[in-house]
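Lesson 9: reading folded outputs for more than one chain in a single document. The general rule is that every protein is listed as its sequence immediately followed by its structure tokens, and records are never interleaved. Here is the first one.
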Amino acid sequence: MNSRNVVRLFMTTLLVGGFTGGIAGMIIRWSEVQHYLTTFDLVSTFSSFFWLFGVGLIFSVISQAGFFAYLTIHRFGLGIFKSLWNSVQILFILFVIFDLIYLRYTNLETGDGLAPYIFPAVYVVIIGVLIAYIKAKRTSKKTFIPALFFMVVATILEWTPVLRGNDESWLYFMLIPLLACNTYQLLMLNKFIEQSQKELASKRGSAIIGDKNQKQLKVDDIAKG
């Protein structure tokens, strides 16, 4: 991917995170912003949205760091484990899901039972399977496991800062932008790569035409001389 499309991917993912964070934050924190809307306090409403938008940008940066880290890890994994890499990724997926449910439950010890800790994991897995299926349909079946690994393992690792607490509003406020940004990057990566290849081919074509024109000018000059 050329630098122009890297910047495009970065900026568009930032916007996805910002707007998703702003909208999700307004919904999740409805009890805090409801008063501004019912009293038509537009200044406070927009201030709240832009603050949530800014936090969404931070979540987007975390997502992008995780995405580029995964691309690097995936290359190393293919080189080290070769055909076993998919099996290794499945083991990591199962371990991280177990860690999200059971270890978080035992560490927090809220006494609420296991059910509240199962739902977030199931939610992430369902979204992960859906996005991995779409990715496989768009590209090839071989991408299903890597896509699922990224959507589940990377999302949960990026989610770690708020998982250590037990504030449900922050859990979903961070999770939704992360999932949105991870989904966008995963599904749009091929499009940006293809765009880069087209731009590169176009530049090469222009360069070849330019060389031919220069050679023709030299021939004409020699003929005139």
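And here is the second record, again sequence then tokens.
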Amino acid sequence: MISLKDIKNNIFKKENFYFLIIIILTFSIDRYSKIKIINNFSDTRFYLNDFLNLDLLWNTGIGFGLLSLESSIYYNFLSILIGLVIVLLIFVGIKSNKFEKFFFSMIIGGALGNFYDRIYFNAVPDFIDLHYKNFHWFTFNLADIFITIGIIFYIFNGVLINRSK
């Protein structure tokens, strides 16, 4: 179990400074992209090519629009739960090794970007619409990309470590 003393001893390590920089950078890139989209694409769909559109949608659920409901009690409960998961990820990230810190920092930076939107807008702006003909994937944002990449790399790293032992 992680104690506060362990966190205090580990928090000022040099590698945790890099951990924080990646979180801030990931969060900032996500915020910048969302501000640009909100200010420029609120009423229109922007066609980029046969596979990609920019289309602003407001997501009240979790990743990729899952669990979207209209209930404010459910939304607030989900937001509190997401906030607690972010805090837990920060604690685990501080205790993890250098490679895992990088993965956790991407996940945390993206999660903080979406959490900020949940608090500020009461919804998360999603705008990347991947599609092939009439099949559309869930609309998502850069924070979702950072979270997904961090999770994939974390799992891939875990599989390689377990295989090498």
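What the second record shows: The chain has five helices and four strands.
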